[in-house]
Write a structure and sequence with these properties.
About 50% of the residues lie in helices and about 0% in strands. By secondary structure, the chain is mainly alpha-helical. The protein is elongated, with a radius of gyration of 19 Å. The chain binds zinc ion. Zinc ion (ZN) binds near residues 73, 78 and 104.
Length: about 110
């Protein structure tokens, strides 16, 4: 049972996971600041509609960060984290399925090179 050699190895995958962890932490802040900006402008303008463009832009920004918070498998490109997994922050990472097995939970490709 020889493992197929991965063109990338574990290093880049680990970096991808840490990058996604970092982005993941920012998602609630992006959403919070969108609502904060909206409420500040709405109060200042005495019109709840005044801040809507800011809210829309802020939520769009949060969506972009949410997309960056997904680590992609170098083999199949799918999410390396399973639904409901809590990978934790980059400073205190919680090992996920992919880190225990060192292979993609979706396509089964070996990721440790
Ligand atoms: Zn995969």
């Amino acid at each position: 049972m020889a493992k197929a050699p991965s063109p990338t190895g574990w290093g880049p995958v680990r970096k991808e996971l840490q990058r996604a962890r970092g982005a993941r932490r920012l998602v609630p802040w992006a959403i919070l600041s969108a609502f904060l900006g909206w409420s500040l402008i709405s109060v200042a303008a005495r019109n709840w509609r005044a801040g809507l463009p800011l809210l829309g832009g802020g939520l769009l920004f949060a969506l972009v960060i949410r997309a960056l918070a997904i680590p992609h498998c170098p083999a199949c490109g799918k999410n390396l984290w399973l639904r409901g997994e809590r990978p934790g922050p980059p400073t205190a990472p919680v090992p996920t399925q992919v880190e225990r097995d060192r292979k993609c939970p979706r396509c089964g490709a070996g990721l440790d090179g």
